[in-house]
Amino acid sequence: MNRRHFLFALSGAAALLGSARPGRAECGTQTAREFVEALYQKQARLQAEKTPMSEEDFNATFSSGLRRLMTARRQTPTTLPDGPILNALFGYGVLPGTEVTIGKVTLASGEDTGPATIAVRIKHRGEQHRLLVHVINQDDDYRIANIIYDSGKSLLAHYQAITRA
């Protein structure tokens, strides 16, 4: 990612965050932290059962900008090895059936009504990991705009790299 791509992504994120409307949390339902915690608890259970979320529900979890990248045409060179598989919510190398334990879920920055960054502690294969989940308000609900894995790689950067967007 060069400086131009970084600034473009940063300005796009700022535009999304600036246009986000307060929604569900003001109505007395979920906070951003509660949304992320419930999502990750459900996904950990589905992961252990090897039962994926429906494609519609999975796509609805993410912001419209991230969804566009996720469904964009891939431009990965065929000469490269496949490498570790990315589980969008849990990170690299988490295959179906891998038991994932959800630990502490805390508000790292932002507002409980969003936009916010939520820190999620997970454990799989005996190793602790910390994820940072960026949540925004979109379409009167919370949506994930990016996930930063403890390796420093992010979901947004992954899709930008394979779509060359």
Q: Which secondary structure elements does this structure contain, and how are they paired or packed?
A:
Elements (H helix, E strand, L loop, with lengths): L2 H17 L12 H17 L6 H6 L3 H8 L14 E2 L3 E2 L7 E11 L5 E9 L2 E12 L2 E8 L6 H9 L2
Antiparallel strand pairs: 1-2, 3-4, 4-5, 5-6
Q: What can you tell me about this protein's structure?
A:
This protein is of the alpha+beta class and 165 residues long. The protein contains five helices and six strands, in the order ααααββββββα. The chain has helices spanning 3-19, 32-48, 55-60, 64-71, 155-163; strands at 86-87, 91-92, 100-110, 116-124, 127-138, 141-148. The strands form two sheets. It has a four-stranded antiparallel β-sheet with strand order 3-4-5-6, sandwiched between helices. The termini are close together. 25% of the residues are buried.
Helical proportion?
Answer: 25-40%
Q: Report the end-to-end length measured between terminal Cα atoms.
A: 10 Å
Strand content: 25-35%
Number of helical regions? 5
Biggest sheet, open or closed, and with what strands and sense?
Answer: 4 strands, antiparallel
Q: What is the radius of gyration?
A: 16 Å
Mean residue pLDDT? 81
Give me the count of strands: 6
Shape: globular
| Stretches with pLDDT under 50, minimum 5 residues | 2-28
Indicate the structural class: alpha+beta
SSE pattern = HHHHEEEEEEH
Could you give the order of strands across the largest sheet?
3-4-5-6
